[in-house]
Amino acid sequence: MTKSILLVGVGGQGTILASKLLTTGLMEAGYDVKMSEIHGMSQRGGSVSSQVRYGNAVYSPVIEVGGADILVSFEKMEALRWLNYLKPEGKIISNNYRMDSMPVLTGKAEYKEKEIEEELKRLDATMLNAADEAVKLGNAKVMNIILLGALVKSMKLEDINWEKIIKDNVKEKFVDINIKALKHGMELVSKEALATN
Question: What is the pLDDT of residue 124?
Answer without folding.
Answer: 81
